[in-house]
Every structure is written in structure tokens, then in C-alpha cells.
Amino acid sequence: MTFLDVRDLRVHFPTDDGLVRSVDGLSYRLERGKTLGIVGESGSGKSVSSLAVLGLHKRARISGEIWLDGEELVGADEEHVRGLRGKKMAMIFQDPLSAMHPYYTVGQQIVEAYRIHHRVSKAVARKHAIEMLDRVGIPQPNSRVDDYPHQFSGGMRQRAMIAMALSCDPELLIADEPTTALDVTVQAQILDLIRDLQREFGSAVVIITHDLGVVAELADDILVMYGGRCVENGPSTEIFDNPQHPYTWGLLGSMPRLDRERSERLMPIKGTPPSLINVPSGCAFHPRCAYAELVGGACGYEVPQLREVGGGHQVACHLSQEQRHRVWHTEIEPN
Ligand code: SF4
Ligand code: MG
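^ thats the input. predicted complex w/ magnesium ion below
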């Protein structure tokens, strides 16, 4: 049985301007001990889809299926799903300051999170909080446990939030842009930390990011989202070594790399992400795609379906295998 099995998930928000189709038919699977990177620009539906897994949308119309460890979460009792949050699944946000309460010490917040699911004394929970702070690399956790969030640096706060999320040993950890606000060195440390903890705890991890570089080292599988849908997914090595979708080419091109040559040759992605109220017809990427003309029309009216291209790698694009191969070898990686 797959640990997390998301099937044809749709998350729509009714608004005065119309229906916002934030997620429109998303499917993926994730096993324990594995990491999935969900990648896309802001507004692609990556955060919304994960908040749906956690049961955190109040005003949304949600359809499809979300199976967590054999249990269907779509339509499940709210109280029950709340019980699963923290204990079975937890989330790390981009901005710990907004996720942590300013008036309580870091220690009090970890203690609270822990005691929701564990019947232990405050003293025992506090000891656990200190252990967790130590575990995520906070120096002198015995004294830092009584600090307030604002007394921590950005990187330390992020570590504290990871401690809070992991204090109940969740089987599913969702990290939404966990390092976006941090400088490059701290970013690398936090990513290492997530990887170490994942190995130690054996959790399933979803990392949401707009930056493919963040998941390059970390993810076993990568799912690329555009306009609320998956446009490409597969093993990480496939996505980096054999990318098939023009949007993924663009994301790779806008990624800072050590071998700058390739990114200099690649075109940055022109234009802006689509409106989720009026998603372009056909392939949602077509107004921005430099290759639609090779296909001759279909891109503008026919939604491309995900098709397997080998090795567990799927792509939703009307270009033929041969056309993609030619573009790749003539324009993107000639030689
Ligand atoms: Fe570009 Fe057409 Fe492929 Fe969409 S389906 S990515 S518009 S070539
Ligand atoms: Mg987001």
C-alpha cells in the first residue's frame, strides 16, 4: 500500500470573480522514507495541493482522493484530520515568524505541540523540547529553550520550527519553501538537516519550492506543476538529465548553476504564470511556450495528457518524442 496516494485532486475556490482552479487534477504517490519535490512558480498550485493534504482549506471545493496510510482524507471528519496533524503529518512553512507565536517562548511552543498528542508532564515535555532543539542544531538548547522567537536568527527560527514539526515524529512532513528566506549557506545547512532527520525518522517528505536547485540533492522524485496541473514528473535523475517539458527546460534554465554555460544558452521563461480563473485553453503553458508552433495548433485547444516516456517518467506535452529530442540537442544541449 502506498503511504501517500493523491488521486485526481481538485481544489477550487469560489470567488466573486469566478472559480479559482488552484489545483485541477493532480495525482502522485509517495512512499515512506522518500522525498518528493513539487516544483513550480508561485500560483502553480503546489502549496494549495499540500494544504489540502493537511486538511487546511476551509472554503475550498475539494474533490478527488487523498489516501494517507490507507485512510481517505477527502471528506473525512474535520476533528479526525486535526488529530492527524502534528501526530501523523506536519508542515514547515517558509516564514517561521508567522507560524510561531511571538508571545510564547520557543520551548513553550514545542511543549504545547508535543503535549497535544502525548499525555506527559510539562517537565517531561520540556526535556523533550530541549532534546529536539539540540537535535536540530541549536547551540546551548538548555538556555535557548526559554528564548522568544524574535531572539533567534532567521536560520535558528527555521531550525526551531523544524524541531516543533518533528517533535511528534510525524510520518509525513511537508516543507513549503523551507529555505527561501535564508541566505545560501544557511539554506544548505537546513536542507542537510531535513535530509538527516528524514533518514533518521524514516518519514515521507514533500518539499515545495520554486527553485529546482533546492530539490536537486534532496528529492528522489520531482513533480513539476504549472497552472494547477502536473506537467512532468519522474525520478529526480530523469528530470535533471532528461527533462522533456518546455516549462521544465525553462525552470532548469533559470536555476543558478556552477556550469553556467547551459543556463546562458537556455531561454529564461518569458511572461507570467496563468490566471487560475481563466486558465488558457489547451496547454496552459502555450502562451509562453517557444515550441508550440512546432506542434501546429493543438497546443491552443487540446489539453495534453500525461504520458509515460520510460523509466517512470511522465510528461504532458504535444511535442513528439522526436521533436523534443531535436530541440534538446540543437538548442539546449548541442554536442
Ligand atoms: Fe509547449 Fe505545446 Fe508542449 Fe504545451 S503542449 S509545452 S504549448 S509544445
Ligand atoms: Mg506557495
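The chain has 14 helices and twelve strands.
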